[in-house]
Amino acid sequence: MFKIFSNSAYTKAIRNTALTAGFISLGYYSTTTYRNNTNETKGFIASQKFKNTKYQEVYNDIAQLIRDNEEHDNYIGCGPVLLRLAWHASGQFDASNGIQGGSYNGTMRFDNELNDPSNAGLGYAYNLLKPVYKKYSEQISHGDLFTLAGVVAVQEMGGPKIPWRYGRVDGNIDAMPENGRLPDANGNANYVRNFFKRLNFLKDEEVVALIGAHCVGKTHLKNSGFEGPWGAATNMFTNEFYKNLLNEKWNLETNGAGNKQYNNDKGYMMLPSDMALVEDKNFKKFVKKFADDEQVFFNVFSSAFSKLLENGIHFDENTPILYFKTLDEQDL
């Protein structure tokens, strides 16, 4: 199951008391003030500890996991859940009161965050990656592993190249953000727009592109309170999500968990927050744009997803931007 948005009833069920304002220095990283676009923002300095790691080899091992687990979830495979892991590990970022959360500290490895109801089902993805982490434990951080897994998932499912940089660290448990920061699947257009502003996404085009990750995977009633896939190509990264939003006939119905979702006669579904993209005039403009041209969607998604994975991190100018070859491109 891949689901960016979470049901508010689930999201509010558990709150932890971990302090998120003070991040603990581990000796090889620190916080700093750097210039992000036109604003000075307090953030984290990317570590150079694992600069010599052969990240293409790590990529290949994760990609092989996707190949080896193609039967997962009735042949949807594990690509969508690895993408969801990367999204959720980054999506609790908050720049509204200093820099908090995000992928930098790799805190999804802690039980309290992993067991946030919004992250239900991600234990499978975390456990899937454990052998990879064990193999490279002296060469990669959890935050880099989680985000790289998202890059692998997008590319191996036929999506765009995602630029990626190393430098995240295994932060202390005190760096873990409070639960409940992931978005509400019942949100309207104003809610969606305001939520993404917290993540430093001020352009509607980027917001619509990021939600387009719903082109893969499906929701599961037991995890999220919603049920069904967004389309037919559940393990192929395409622009089908936008075409379905515009062209399918959607009926608002109550599911088995008592939540409202939009269904069609093909067995597809949309969350209320998905439908907000066609109910809002400006959002809908980009839905049409991406439905008309998959490559345009890919270009915007690639940039926005990379930004999501890097929120709050200051990378040294010498830190290379890495692009990875898929297994097919390597004839593997």
Automatic annotation (TrEMBL):
GO terms for cellular component: mitochondrial intermembrane space; mitochondrial matrix. Keywords: Heme, Iron, Metal-binding, Mitochondrion, Oxidoreductase, Peroxidase, Transit peptide. One of its GO terms (biological process) is hydrogen peroxide catabolic process. InterPro entries: Ccp1-like (IPR044831), Haem_peroxidase (IPR002016), Haem_peroxidase_sf (IPR010255), Peroxidase_I (IPR002207), Peroxidases_AS (IPR019794). It catalyses: 2 Fe(II)-[cytochrome c] + H2O2 + 2 H(+) = 2 Fe(III)-[cytochrome c] + 2 H2O. It is found in: Mitochondrion intermembrane space; Mitochondrion matrix. GO terms for molecular function: cytochrome-c peroxidase activity; heme binding; metal ion binding. Residues 94-308 form the Plant heme peroxidase family profile domain. It comes from the Eukaryota. Destroys radicals which are normally produced within the cells and which are toxic to biological systems. Forms a one-to-one complex with cytochrome c. Belongs to the peroxidase family. Cytochrome c peroxidase subfamily. This is Peroxidase.
